[in-house]
Design brief:
Layout: H1 5-11, E1 33-34, E2 45-48, H2 50-57, H3 64-67, E3 73-77, E4 85-89, E5 97-101, E6 104-105, E7 126-131, E8 143-150, E9 156-163, E10 167-179, E11 182-194, E12 198-201, E13 204-207, E14 212-225, E15 229-243, E16 259-275, E17 278-294, E18 299-317, E19 320-335, E20 339-340, E21 343-344, E22 347-364, E23 372-384, E24 390-400, E25 405-416, H4 420-424, E26 436-449, E27 454-474, E28 480-502, E29 505-518, E30 531-541, E31 545-554, E32 557-558, E33 568-569, E34 572-585, E35 588-597, E36 616-625, E37 634-635
Parallel strand pairs: 5-8
Antiparallel strand pairs: 1-2, 2-7, 3-4, 5-6, 7-8, 8-37, 9-10, 9-36, 10-11, 11-14, 12-13, 14-15, 15-16, 16-17, 17-18, 18-19, 19-22, 20-21, 22-23, 23-24, 24-25, 25-26, 26-27, 27-28, 28-29, 29-30, 30-31, 31-34, 32-33, 34-35, 35-36
Length: 636
C-alpha cells in the first residue's frame, strides 16, 4: 500500500500537548502518559490522567473515544451510536478484562463483557489500563481497566453538541459540595442519533436502516475524606431505547426493525481506613439490569441482578507487604430466552466466593546501580456454584534501574468462568463449555528521558496460552453459537513512544503485533488484528487554538475460526482531525470545537456485516462557570 507524502505529513503533525496548567477544570488537550512511577504492588500500567481526559470530557464523548488511543486496545464496534462497543487486549476476549470503578469491579454475570457505549467520559477523571492477570479480581485474564474520579473544580459545567446522522447531545454537571475533604456532584446527560448512513455495495449506494440511538444518563458521587479513612458512594442509572438493525449480508441488504430497551442501575459504596501499618477496606455494589429485545416476530425480556461484597486489607512490615482479599458474589437472571439443551428454563443463578493473598518484598541497594526491586507472589481460589474450585497463581518482578529505567516480568495462571449468555442463551449458549484457563507471560522494559524535554517509552513481549478458549461463531447470518477451542496461543510484542519536542508539541506512537491462533489448526482467532498502529499528534498556536490529528491502522482479520476466504476482512486505516478554540471571559471558560471523523472517507467494517460510517462531523460548545484553580487528586 502506497502512502501519500501529504498524508504522511499530516499524520506527523504534533499531538497530545503537555502544559503545566494548574486548572484541571479547564484543561488542555489530551496526553497519553506511560506511568513510570514506582508501583509497588501492581504491574505495568498506562494511565490517562485528569488533564488528559479533559479534552474528551469537554466534548461529551464516550469511553471508547479515549481507550481507542491506548496501545494494544482493540475496540469492537457493531456500528455507530446504536451499536454495542466492547474492547479486547492482545488477542484475548473482552470478557477477560475487568472494569473496576474506585476499586470495586463492575460485575455482569449475564453478558460477561462491558458495553462502552453505556459510560461517558463525563463520569470519570482518570483511566488506568493494566496488562496481565490480577491477584484480586476474578475472571481477569488479560488485565484491568480502572476508572476513578476527582474533586470538581467548577460551579457548573454545561455542554451541547450536534453532528452528522442527527446526533444531538447535552450534559450538565453540578457539584453540591467542594470542600477540601468532602465533595459531591451530580451529572445528567442525554444523547440521540439516527445512524441511517449510506454504504456502497457492488457499486451501488444503500442505506443502513432502522438504526436509532437514544440514551438518558444520571449519576452521582460523594467522597468524604478523613485523616485515617475515606467514604465513597457512587451511583449511576441509564436507559437506552435503540433501534438495532441486523448485520448486512450479501443479497439481503435491508434491515429488520429490532428494538433494544434497557434500564440499568448500579450503586457502590466503599469505606477505606488507612494507618501507618496498612489499610482495611469494605466495599459493596448492586447492579440491576432490565433488557427488552423486541422484533416483529418475538419479544425477549431479561432481568439481571448482581450483588457483590468484598473485604480487603494490606499490612506493611519493614520491606514486606501482605495483602488479603475476600469477595462474595451472587448473580440471578430470569428471562424469556433461557434454555439448557434447547429446553427452556425460567431462571439461572450463580454464587461465588473468592479468596486471595499476595506477598511483596522490596529490596534496595546502592542507588548508583540497581537501587530497587520488587518481587510479588499471589494466590487466589474461586469457589463457584456448578464448577469445581479454580486456583490462580501469579508471580511478578520489577527491577528499577539507573535514572528511571526499569525491567519487569510477569508470569501467571488464571481462570474465567463462562457468562450466563455463553451457557444458557437459547440457540446460542452451550451448557457444556468449561472455564477458560490462561497462562500469561510478559517481559518488558520501560523508561523516560528528561533531557530532551520529555520522552517516555515502553517495549514489551507477551506470550499467552489459553485452554478451552470460548468463542462465538456465526452458523448463518442470523444464528450464532458458542463452543470451546482446546488450546490457543497468542504471542507478540508492542512498542510505545511519546515525545514532546517543546511545550506546544507532543507526538505519540504505538505499535502492536499479535499472532493469536488455534494451536491445532493454526487458524487465526476471529476479530484479532495481526497489526495495530496508533499515531497521534497535536500542536497549539496563539495559546487559544489547538489542532489534533489521530491515525489508527488495523490489519487484516477473519470473522470465523476457519479463516475461509468469505470471512476475510480487509485492513483499514482511519484519520480523525479536530480543531479547538478556547477563551476566558469574565472568569468563565468557553470552548468551541469541530471534529472531523474518518477524514479520508474510508468504508470499513470492524465486525462483519456492520458497516461503519464514513466521514462525519461534530460541533460542540462548552461553558464552565467559573474555572477555579485546584490541584489534581484521584480518589479510589
Amino acid at each position: 500500500m502506497r502512502i501519500n507524502p501529504l498524508l504522511l505529513w499530516v499524520l506527523l503533525l504534533p499531538h497530545y500537548m503537555l502544559l503545566s496548567q494548574q486548572d484541571t477544570a479547564w484543561t488542555t488537550s489530551p496526553i497519553i502518559i506511560i506511568d513510570t512511577s514506582y508501583q509497588k504492588y501492581e504491574g505495568t500500567t498506562t494511565t490517562l490522567f485528569a488533564d488528559s481526559l479533559g479534552n474528551y470530557q469537554n466534548n461529551g464523548l464516550q469511553l471508547q473515544d479515549a481507550l481507542i488511543h491506548l496501545n494494544s486496545v482493540y475496540i469492537r464496534s457493531y456500528g455507530s451510536h446504536s451499536g454495542i462497543k466492547t474492547f479486547s487486549l492482545r488477542g484475548l476476549a473482552s470478557n477477560q478484562t475487568n472494569v473496576v470503578i474506585a476499586g470495586i469491579p463492575l460485575q455482569s454475570a449475564q453478558q460477561g463483557s462491558f458495553n462502552l457505549a453505556n459510560f461517558s467520559l463525563d463520569d470519570f477523571e482518570q483511566i488506568s489500563v493494566s496488562q496481565g492477570s490480577s491477584d484480586i479480581h476474578s475472571n481477569t485474564l488479560s488485565g484491568n481497566i480502572e476508572l476513578n474520579f476527582t474533586r470538581p473544580t467548577y460551579k457548573v459545567k454545561c455542554k451541547l453538541g450536534l453532528g452528522s446522522f442527527e446526533n444531538y447531545f447535552g450534559h450538565i454537571s453540578v457539584p453540591l459540595k467542594k470542600q477540601k475533604n468532602n465533595f459531591s456532584k451530580i451529572q445528567l446527560r442525554y444523547e440521540q442519533a439516527r445512524d441511517n448512513y449510506p454504504f456502497v455495495y457492488q457499486n451501488q449506494t444503500f442505506y443502513r436502516e432502522n438504526a436509532q440511538f437514544r440514551q438518558y444518563q444520571a449519576n452521582a458521587v460523594w467522597v468524604r475524606e478523613h485523616k485515617k479513612w475515606t467514604f465513597t458512594i457512587y451511583s449511576k442509572a441509564y436507559t437506552n431505547d435503540n433501534g438495532v438493525p441486523d448485520a448486512i449480508v450479501h443479497n439481503h441488504l435491508s434491515s429488520t426493525q429490532k428494538k433494544l430497551q434497557e434500564q440499568d442501575t448500579w450503586t457502590m459504596f466503599k469505606i477505606k481506613k488507612v494507618d501507618k501499618k496498612g489499610f482495611q477496606e469494605i466495599g459493596a455494589s448492586y447492579h440491576f439490569n432490565h433488557l427488552g429485545y423486541l422484533t416483529p416476530l418475538v419479544r425477549f425480556k431479561y432481568v439481571n441482578h448482581d450483588l457483590l461484597l468484598q473485604y480487603q486489607a494490606g499490612y506493611l512490615y519493614k520491606r514486606h507487604y501482605v495483602k488479603m482479599h475476600v469477595q462474595g458474589l451472587y448473580a440471578h437472571l430470569e428471562g424469556d430466552n433461557l434454555s439448557i439443551r434447547l429446553q427452556r428454563i425460567p431462571f439461572v443463578y450463580r454464587s461465588q466466593v473468592n479468596g486471595a493473598v499476595s506477598h511483596a518484598y522490596t529490596w534496595q541497594k546502592d542507588r548508583a546501580t540497581l537501587y530497587c526491586a520488587t518481587f510479588q507472589t499471589a494466590y487466589r481460589i474461586n469457589f463457584i456454584s456448578d464448577f469445581s474450585p479454580m486456583h490462580n497463581v501469579s508471580c511478578y518482578a520489577n527491577l528499577f534501574l539507573y535514572k528511571k529505567q526499569y525491567l519487569y516480568a510477569n508470569l501467571s495462571y488464571t481462570a474465567r468462568i463462562p457468562s450466563f449468555n455463553e451457557m444458557y442463551y437459547f440457540g446460542y449458549g452451550n451448557p457444556d463449555i468449561l472455564p477458560e484457563r490462561t497462562q500469561n507471560m510478559q517481559i518488558g522494559y520501560s523508561g523516560s528521558i528528561d533531557k530532551l524535554r520529555q520522552v517516555l517509552y515502553k517495549a514489551e513481549l507477551f506470550y499467552h496460552i489459553i485452554h478451552d478458549k470460548i468463542v462465538s461463531i456465526p452458523q448463518n447470518p442470523v444464528i450464532w453459537s458458542t463452543y470451546s477451542i482446546g488450546k490457543v496461543i497468542s504471542k507478540g510484542f508492542e512498542v510505545d513512544v511519546q515525545y514532546q519536542p517543546h511545550k506546544s508539541m507532543v507526538i505519540h506512537y504505538g505499535y502492536t503485533r499479535t499472532d493469536a491462533r488455534d494451536a491445532l489448526t493454526k487458524s487465526l482467532l476471529p476479530y484479532t488484528p495481526v497489526e495495530m498502529i496508533k499515531l497521534q499528534a497535536q500542536y497549539q498556536f496563539f495559546k487559544v487554538f489547538t489542532v489534533q490529528g489521530a491515525y489508527q491502522y488495523n490489519g487484516y482479520r477473519f470473522s470465523s475460526v476457519q479463516n475461509d476466504r468469505s470471512s476475510y476482512l480487509e485492513p483499514y486505516h482511519i484519520l480523525d482531525f479536530n480543531i479547538t478554540y478556547r477563551m476566558r471571559y469574565c472568569g468563565q471558560g468557553i470552548q468551541v470545537r469541530i471534529d472531523i471523523n474518518n477524514l479520508l472517507n474510508v468504508q470499513y467494517e470492524v465486525i462483519k456485516g456492520y458497516v461503519m460510517p464514513r466521514r462525519s462531523y461534530v460541533l460542540s460548545f462548552l461553558w464552565a462557570c467559573p474555572s477555579l484553580r485546584s490541584g489534581r487528586r484521584a480518589t479510589g
